[in-house]
Amino acid sequence: GNSVTQMEGPVTLSEEAFLTINCTYTATGYPSLFWYVQYPGEGLQLLLKATKADDKGSNKGFEATYRKETTSFHLEKGSVQVSDSAVYFCALPLSGGSYIPTFGRGTSLIVHP
Amino acid sequence: DAEITQSPRHKITETGRQVTLACHQTWNHNNMFWYRQDLGHGLRLIHYSYGVQDTNKGEVSDGYSVSRSNTEDLPLTLESAASSQTSVYFCASSELTSGNLRTDTQYFGPGTRLTVL
């Protein structure tokens, strides 16, 4: 089945710093790719997604580009805020056609004022 | 607004007791999922359902059961709670669509923190 690997955290940054969280995947075909965010004490929520190669997903200042050449979907933000402190999960379907996602282990982001 | 709710939000129980965690969604989604989240393990799938009367085992289904009698609800039952089942449990739902309408986005509930003493 498909799988995803994301960088381990925690990632600790100062406010207004640039953020990159790496995500690489192994997949058959070209499945949709997702980033979910989990704020403290809450469930996961979709942050952004891309459905085909070269697509860029974006939301709340975050961006990720579907790179089939490097099988990557890295999450970036130009200027992080304290309110971005959360755990970020990269995900894709477990296999072609499956409605079950496989998630990365999650990367904790801590932003200091 | 559509939502997915879980109850209780916190539960403390004793080893050997039966526990049921509720999940209710108003998205009218056919797909529903139960996960547990533990440090060092990430999210692990317990059970899932693609519609009424349909249930399937996930990777960590031992000791858990589900039933789907309507579209909105997928209760998770721990038949005989064990300390190893202390965890945070999340319910999620998604649409059962295909082709160009397919989205695959999962909508998560707020979670239930279960402690088994």
How would you characterize the overall build of this protein?
The complex is a heterodimer of chains A (113) and B (117). Chain A is an all-beta fold and 113 residues long. Helices cover 0% and strands 50% of the residues of chain A. Chain A is built from no helices and 12 strands. Chain A has strands at 3-6, 11-14, 19-21, 23-26, 33-38, 44-50, 56-59, 62-65, 75-77, 86-93, 101-103, 107-112. In chain A, strands 2, 5, 6, 10, 11 and 12 form a 6-stranded mixed beta sheet that branches. A 4-stranded antiparallel beta sheet of chain A has the order 3-9-8-7, with no helix packed on it. In chain A, a hairpin with a 7-residue loop joins strand 10 and strand 11. The model of chain A has no long low-confidence stretch (mean pLDDT 95). Chain B is mainly β. Chain B is 0% helix and 50% strand. Chain B contains no helices and 11 strands. Chain B has strands at residues 4-7, 10-13, 19-25, 31-38, 42-51, 54-57, 64-66, 76-78, 87-94, 107-108, 112-116. In chain B, the strands form 2 sheets. In chain B, strands 2, 4, 5, 6, 9, 10 and 11 form a 7-stranded mixed beta sheet that branches. Chain B is elongated. The chains are: A mainly beta (113), B mainly beta (117).
Q: Strand percentage of chain B, roughly?
A: over 45%
- Report the span from N to C terminus of chain A: 41 Å
Give the integer mean of the pLDDT values of chain B: 94
In the predicted model, the low-confidence regions of chain A spanning at least 5 consecutive residues are none
Biggest pleated sheet of chain A = 6 strands, mixed
Helix content of chain A: under 10%
- Secondary-structure element order of chain B, as H and E? EEEEEEEEEEE
Outline of chain B, from the CA principal axes?
elongated
SSE sequence of chain A, one letter per element: EEEEEEEEEEEE
CA-based gyration radius of chain B? 14 Å
Give the total of beta strands of chain B.
Answer: 11
How many E-type strands of chain A?
12
Number of helices of chain A: 0
Shape of chain A: globular
What value does the average pLDDT of chain A take? 95
**Largest interface, and how many residues on either side?**
A-B, 19 and 20 residues
Number of helices of chain B: 0
Give the biggest sheet of chain B.
7 strands, mixed
